Amino acid sequence: MIKVVLFGPESTGKTTLAKQLAAHYKTHWVPEYMRVYLEEKWKNKGELVTKEDLIPIAKGQLSLENEIAEKADKLLFLDTNLLELKVYSEYYYDGYCPEEITSEATKNNYSIYLLTYIDIPWEADVLRDRPNNREEMFSIFEAELKTQGFPYKVLRGNKGERFNKAVEIIDKLLQK
User: Fold this and answer.
1) Each residue of 31-77: pLDDT tens digit?
2) Does residue 9 contact residue 118 with C-beta atoms inside 8 Å?
3) Which residue ranges does the record assign to the NadR/Ttd14 AAA domain (predicted)?
4) CB 79 within 8 A of CB 114
């Protein structure tokens, strides 16, 4: 199965693109479990993420990915994966990430990462907090892909341009 991960800083169009691509290819996509988990936590307790949330988020993401992968045929899109959780954990917690997450996140279980650039407008919500650190965050995300040696392509431009470039990349993968 070809697994395509949408990867990059907050508010760079990953969810929108995952939904569009899944619809285009008539397949499934895996939402970002961290968002669901943290929105629920905020609604119920008025609290944001803590180190104690990292393992439950990771387990939830993997469970959701496995559940949805069973429904997909030859192509699956992921709004994010554990590598993104690793990047954010290390960023927010001064280099800390639980070994269980690092170990799982650095396995190359995906066909390609589509790294979303920061050239679309940032949209505020309760979980997003880095509108002025977008270049720094993009560099961190790209450096992580390079460090791991994972295959990736950068998607730039407006939503239509990103979609078209992603389709071009995925069509080539499907032809192999």
Assistant:
1) 999 888 988 887 888 777 889 999 999 999 999 999 999 999 899 99
2) yes
3) 3-162
4) no
What is the C-alpha to C-alpha distance for residues 112 and 151, in angstroms, rounded to an integer?
A: 5
| Residues linked to residue 4 through DSSP beta bridges, in sequence order | 77, 112
Hey, what domains does the chain have and what are their CATH numbers?
2-175 (3.40.50.300)
Given this model, what pLDDT does residue 134 score?
A: 87
Predicted TM-score (pTM) above 0.85: yes
The C-alpha angle with vertex 23 and arms to 163 and 159, in degrees rounded to 5, equals 25
DSSP alpha helix (H) spans, 26-81 = 33-45, 54-69
Q: CA 87, CA 96: separation in Å to the nearest integer?
A: 10
Residues of the chain with confidence (pLDDT) below 70: 123-132
d(CA 85, CA 27): 24
